Amino acid sequence: MANVSPADSSSQPFLARHEFLIRRLHSLSGLVPVGAYMVVHLLTNASVLESPAAFQRNVYGIHSLGRLLPVVEWVFIFIPILFHAIIGVAIIRGGLPNHGSYPYARNIRYSLQRASGIVAFFFIAWHVFHMHGWFHADWWLKTVATPLAGAQFKAFNATSTAGSAIQQHWLVSVFYAIGILACVFHLANGIWTMGITWGVWVGPIAQRRAAAVCTAGGIALAAVGLGALGGMATVDVEKAKQVEDRMFHHKLEAGEVPNDSHKRTDGDHKDDGQPADMARK
Amino acid sequence: MNAPSANASNGHSVSASKSDHPEFFQVRVLRQDQPGGDCYWQRYRVRYESDMNVISVLQRIAAQGVTMDGRAVAPVAWDCNCLEEICGACTMVINGRVRQACSALVDRLLADNPQEIELRPMTKFPVVRDLVVDRSRLFRALQRVRAWIDVDGYQDQGAGPRVSREDQEQAYPLSQCMSCGCCLEACPQYTKIEVLQQAGESAAEAQARTEAAYDHGFMGAHAISQAVLFNTHPTGQMAASQRLEQLTAEGGIQVCGNAQNCVAVCPKQIPLTTSIARAGRAVTVWAWKKWFDR
Ligand code: SF4
Ligand code: SF4
Ligand code: FES
User: Which pLDDT belongs to residue A237?
Assistant: First the structure.
């Protein structure tokens, strides 16, 4: 009887030894939290279609987490996305797409899953820079992020800043549309392959049904995402800003929000020179 | 590809009348003289006969011994055995698609591309010579997943457990695998591993190095499917956790990217992606138990 014990496991590199666990975590992280976050994110943004105030209300809701917000963002969004992206790159490097020789629909989706992952990665990196500037340090925002058209989103002027960031140039909308569609495809197709990987849908009929459901879900989510983009691209920035400022002053008087200049369009002059922490009081 | 080759060829020869085929056709072969050597294309001209398959084309080329421009060359080397698509030995890439040479009919190939027939060795296995490849990685993967049933001895052990009709129907298609390698050739996640014997290295040393390299690579759809087959067998089940352990080791099922080319190209129509999902479910449960039952 052949004794098969492939390679002494202790001598293998970490990634090889834990390949199964890492791949499964990669698969899971794509659904929760990353995929789930994306759905919530797009739905929230689509609330701009209801009214500029509705979107602003939602953003206030998110920011009511206060000092917990960065922790939540890192634990549930940034770290999982980075993990998913880094392992994803390793996975892409391990494969050899061959849709040219074998142009079957599912094989094309295999290649598209990788392509959309790469597009999504660059889009998300740019999107986070465009809206948030990556880092919140003052010197970075002043000398790098703002001059490069980044860090445009201000949470307490949510609709007007997001709207004007999108309306900067028509190309911005095009990039966002491509990015959103890549992310949505990656999620919808990813859920389908995930079901096979984890053994949820096994037989060919079940896999076909699951594909139909994933397609329908993907189309719906794409509609939500593009709707949100359309809303931001057409919102009246000036009017939105007036509404936001009124909301802000109400909340400020009620003591519901801190007077944080970083979160407002023209908050800067109010607490010039003060460190952000002081201004939060 | 549903019809057995004999039927297909008969059906076709009726329609292929004398007038709609050329007198000669061209064959382009990707040749390689030795393992690790350079490869090069060579063209041949073959006289058309009715009901030819790629093996008979290769026989004609060997008999001619000359290329299209009249150069005398060593005959093209190829593998074949059963000539009825059940041994898998003649697997090669024909007009860009992996399949068995013995069941690749010239009439059909010329209908798709009247210009020429292109023959290449499989790209995921080390070439031994011309169209002959070394598929030992495929068999090594079967060893990894213990694709057999252990017997305790040779004495009469009485009747085995009964296998339900349902299990039989699930197992039978999987048992038809002929280890041809089509599923591996077409798989985008299965990449070539070739280890060449170095100067001063013994054959045994090179073999050990090769096997170690193979064991780091993806095992492939056929091995996953065989693991499922033997894990559904009542006696085979006794080694189920060893197979699941191997399925989750490096190069195991997690490497599959769900491109599903394997199932599309398998000449035996084995439901490979169903096996992959079944194995995926089994390892999900098994890994959970492994981590939380202790
Ligand atoms: S599973 Fe199909 S394609 Fe793969 S080796 Fe077996 S018979 Fe060939
Ligand atoms: S489903 Fe998996 S094993 Fe089959 S071709 Fe795709 S990646 Fe390879
Ligand atoms: S010779 Fe056996 S499959 Fe072709």
Answer: 95
* Encoded amino acid at B206, one letter: A
Cα distances from B78 to residues B29, B59, B68, B265, in angstroms, run 11, 10, 19, 21
- For residue B172, give the CATH number of its domain: 1.10.1060.10
Any atom of ligand 3 within 6 Å of the Cβ of B90: yes
Same domain? B147 vs B102:
no
- State the pLDDT at residue B11: 40
List the residue whose alpha carbon is closest to atom 3 of ligand 1.
B266
**Two tokens at B7?**
């039927």
Give A87-106 pLDDT, tens digit per residue.
Answer: 999 999 999 999 999 999 99
Question: What is the separation of C-alpha A206 from the centre of its chain, rounded to a whole number of angstroms?
Answer: 30
In this prediction, the residues of chain B whose per-residue pLDDT falls under 50 are 1-18
pLDDT of residue A11: 61
The answer for residues whose C-beta is within 8 angstroms of residue B109's C-beta and 6 or more apart is: B54, B94, B95, B117
Q: What is the pLDDT of residues A10-33, one digit of tens each?
A: 567 888 889 999 999 999 999 999
Residue A167: Cβ-neighbour burial (10 angstroms; 0-12, 13-18, 19+) = middle
Cβ contact, residue pair B287, A95, below 8 Å: no
State which H helix or E strand residue A120 sits in: helix A105-132
B50 falls within a domain = yes
Residues A244 and A54: their CA atoms lie apart, in Å, by 10
Pocket of ligand 1 (CB under 6 A): B 88, 177-183, 222, 225, 266-268, 270, 272
A105/B259 Cα distance (integer angstroms): 9
Q: pLDDT averaged over chain A?
A: 90
CATH placement of domain A18-263: 1.20.1300.10
Half-sphere exposure (CA, 13 Å, Cβ side) for B187? Answer: 27
Residues in chain B: 294
The answer, yes or no, to whether residue A251 has pLDDT greater than 80, is: yes
Return the closest-CA partner of residue B130 out of B244, B51, B40. B40
> Are the Cβ atoms of A196 and B284 closer than 8 angstroms?
no
Of B125, B149, B138, B141, whose CA–CA distance to B249 is shortest?
B141
